[in-house]
């Protein structure tokens, strides 16, 4: 009998870890857990890593870097190092890591399959890169164009600390943050959308648990060629036509941010005022779905060569 691959989730009790654990039930894998009382014990975690085929890191950035160091030491000691999928921000632009957005290009699924180390995309970059990269690749959005990105997330995006604060206090209904304009996702968006000019990114949080809209306003008369909203939509449709997770939808006058809560899919739209040559591109997703745990399951399936056997949530 063929043995099921073994997966260890470091940070299994956190928001992203729990979402991945739940979704792993749909894959033919065995989950290796450590005793909850030892979940932060380096010795117990190193043992679990050495016994696994794939380690999923659902930790804060610094703890992720330490965990990768532990796996490096397993390899240096002559052990068989497991593959790594990292959910943190630590390695999303790091050399030697493959970016875990399978829809990025036609070659990306194969690159993820072959990789030893994959970084799971950030929730906001998932929407921004999905909208911008095909248009940059097509030469329609110039790589050095001044791009602004606005986004709103559900409060689970801030992990346990923000969830507890929002649920204890009733939370502020809406707040802009990252107003020092150096949010940790900017380098990731810039690199994977292939922009040469740093985009301006303004995130926000609303008092709802799950959901996200990322929006990118464009003045069509500033693009490289004369194009219409229908042209932009055509390029996005061509890129995502085969994807079970990403779809291009009809524009709507109103979008609610939490409509895809509980789903691992993402919806893209092109909203146009043709008379004024204005377009707003939007991506709607669940920050914990395609923005985190749902994307992780896509990557785990590719990295282990297993199939979910059912359609995405
Ligand atoms: N929430 C989201 O929407 C998304 C989050 N991510 C990324 O996933 C990672 C985890 O985020 P999230 O799940 O939201 O955060 P949480 O705070 O909900 O979970 C993090 C977990 O890691 C545990 N932990 C912290 N330090 C260590 C350590 N040294 N050893 C073992 N366990 C440790 C925490 O335990 P304790 O609580 O006891 O400290 C907690 O269980 C982050 O890097 C984040 O950027 C990715 C995509 C989206
Ligand atoms: C609402 C909120 O606080 N969101 C987080 C982003 C989510 C996250 O930390 O995880 P990823 O990097 O994997 O997306 C933030 O802005 O720092």
From TrEMBL:
EC top class named in words: oxidoreductase
Principal location class: cytoplasm
Pathway(s) this gene product operates in, as recorded in its UniProt entry: Amino-acid biosynthesis; L-arginine biosynthesis; N(2)-acetyl-L-ornithine from L-glutamate: step 3/4
Active site per database record: 123
Location in or out of the cell: Cytoplasm
Entry-linked SMART domains: Semialdhyde_dh
Keyword field: Amino-acid biosynthesis, Arginine biosynthesis, Cytoplasm, NADP, Oxidoreductase
Domain of life: Bacteria
Domain spans labelled Semialdehyde dehydrogenase NAD-binding: 6-112
PANTHER family linked: N-ACETYL-GAMMA-GLUTAMYL-PHOSPHATE REDUCTASE, CHLOROPLASTIC-RELATED, N-ACETYL-GAMMA-GLUTAMYL-PHOSPHATE REDUCTASE, CHLOROPLASTIC-RELATED-RELATED
NCBIfam families on file: argC_other
HAMAP family: ArgC_type2
Function comment: Catalyzes the NADPH-dependent reduction of N-acetyl-5-glutamyl phosphate to yield N-acetyl-L-glutamate 5-semialdehyde.
Name by which UniProt lists this protein: N-acetyl-gamma-glutamyl-phosphate reductase
Source species of the chain: Acetobacter musti
């Amino acid at each position: 009998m063929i043995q099921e691959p073994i997966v260890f989730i470091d940070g299994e009790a956190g928001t992203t870890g729990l979402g991945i654990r739940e979704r792993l039930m749909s894959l033919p894998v065995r989950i290796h857990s450590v005793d909850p009382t030892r979940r932060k014990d380096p010795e117990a975690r190193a043992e679990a890593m050495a016994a696994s085929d794939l380690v999923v890191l659902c930790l804060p950035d610094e703890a992720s870097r330490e965990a990768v160091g532990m796996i490096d030491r397993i390899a240096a000691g002559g052990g068989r190092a497991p593959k790594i999928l990292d959910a943190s921000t630590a390695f999303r632009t790091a050399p030697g890591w493959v970016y875990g957005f399978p829809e990025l290009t036609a070659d990306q699924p194969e690159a993820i399959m072959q990789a030893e180390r994959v970084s799971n995309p950030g929730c906001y970059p998932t929407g921004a890169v999905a909208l911008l990269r095909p248009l940059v690749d097509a030469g329609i959005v110039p790589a050095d164009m001044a791009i602004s990105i606005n986004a709103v997330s559900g409060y689970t995006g801030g992990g346990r600390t923000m969830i507890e604060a929002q649920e204890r206090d009733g939370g502020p209904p809406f707040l802009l943050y990252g107003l020092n304009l150096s949010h940790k996702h900017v380098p990731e968006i810039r690199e994977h959308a292939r922009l040469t000019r740093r985009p301006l990114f303004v995130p926000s949080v609303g008092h709802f648990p799950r959901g996200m809209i990322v929006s990118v306003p464009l003045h069509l008369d500033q693009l490289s060629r004369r194009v219409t909203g229908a042209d932009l939509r055509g390029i996005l449709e061509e890129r995502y036509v085969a994807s079970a997770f990403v779809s291009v939808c009809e524009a709507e006058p109103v979008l609610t941010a939490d409509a895809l809560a509980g789903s691992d899919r993402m919806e893209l739209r092109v909203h146009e005022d043709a008379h004024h040559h204005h377009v707003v591109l939007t991506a709607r997703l669940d920050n914990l779905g395609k923005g985190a745990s749902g994307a992780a399951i896509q990557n785990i399936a590719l990295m282990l060569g297993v199939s979910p056997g059912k359609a995405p949530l």
